[in-house]
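To illustrate the input format used throughout this study, we show a single complete record. The first block contains the structure-token representation of the backbone; no residue identities are included at this stage. The design step must infer an amino acid for every position from geometry alone.
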């Protein structure tokens, strides 16, 4: 999700999402037994994050770094495609994009998967 004052950070995260989502699809099609979990995090109560938003953003909603770390570990262990961790119950609901999943599924139909798999 885009936010003010973090353009370079957001750009790198969007790039990682695109890259690893593509690799995940390639692994899925070629039956590679590797799991990739993307972690979409809100404001986490770390020293760096709190210093960056000090005086600019209300830090009341910052999430626990310990609980966040546990959710990331659980998501990876359970081979989840995405983990959403934020202080809001709405985050996973609103950011979990079913349209993206449908388009990714439909886009695979235009590939000659037998040739893709053999490359």
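Output of the design step:
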């Amino acid at each position: 999700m885009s936010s003010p004052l973090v353009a370079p950070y957001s750009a790198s995260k969007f790039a990682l999402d695109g890259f690893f989502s593509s690799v995940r699809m390639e692994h899925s099609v070629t039956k590679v037994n590797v799991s990739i979990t993307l972690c979409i995090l809100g404001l986490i109560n770390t020293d760096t994050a709190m210093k960056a938003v000090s005086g600019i953003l209300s830090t009341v909603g910052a999430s626990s770094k310990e609980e966040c770390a546990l959710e990331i570990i659980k998501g990876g262990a359970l081979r989840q495609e995405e983990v959403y961790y934020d202080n809001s119950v709405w985050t996973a609901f609103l950011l979990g994009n079913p349209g993206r999943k449908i388009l990714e599924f439909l886009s695979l139909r235009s590939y000659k998967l037998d040739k893709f798999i053999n490359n």
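Structural context for interpreting the output: The chain has a mean pLDDT of 84. The beta strands are 38-41, 82-85.
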